[in-house]
Please model this.
Amino acid sequence: MTTSTSLAGLVARLAETACVRAPFKLQDGGQLDNYFDEYRLAADPTLLRDVATAMVPLVPSDAQVLAGIELGGIPLVVALSAATGLPAVFLRRRPKGYGSQHQIEGAAIDGRRTVLVDDVTRSGSQLLHMARLLRIAGGPVADALCVLERPLGGRELLAEHRVRLHALFAEADLPDPGGAATA
Ligand SMILES: O=P(O)(O)OC[C@H]1O[C@H](OP(=O)(O)OP(=O)(O)O)[C@H](O)[C@@H]1O
Ligand SMILES: O=C(O)c1cc(=O)[nH]c(=O)[nH]1
Model:
């Protein structure tokens, strides 16, 4: 395994480790022939650390809290929290069905500028949903980070709702999927 930390080197390592050449059913019913598997990235501690390090410059200088989205955003937000020293929040897709019944876990929001963290952005609907949740809970949200941006309108949708998207890399940066791992 190479240990290059240049963006191009990092993208090549991500493609080798986490881009999978296999059918993948999407939540909206669509299907991909190749997909980015965040969990292969998160399972590789060196790669996860290097991705988090590369994302540090994307974190706005006025950020006070980082909020990761279940499930793909959770390992990322833990790694990015460790890399930046900013406290982490964990966003459940749905409120816990027992006990605390919390949907927002971890650090307190309390009016602090909160930056969303997720693995992949496609339509932007998941990030928008969570931005609304945080805003209702009293956390100002103006920025969202992701590892991979697919150009499916997410950036534009988020901008309409005053959320800037910052992606580590875009679909166009990925090498030919012929080199992707197989499932
Ligand atoms: O921009 P969008 O169209 O909203 O799509 C992106 C969302 O879809 C993926 O989640 P997935 O459904 O794979 O769930 P997971 O994170 O639990 O694996 C990804 O982690 C984002 O949350
Ligand atoms: O676009 C992808 O690669 C992708 C989408 C998604 O919903 N989940 C995932 O792991 N990858």
Summary: The CA atoms of residues 54 and 162 lie 24 Å apart. The longest helix spans residues 7-18.
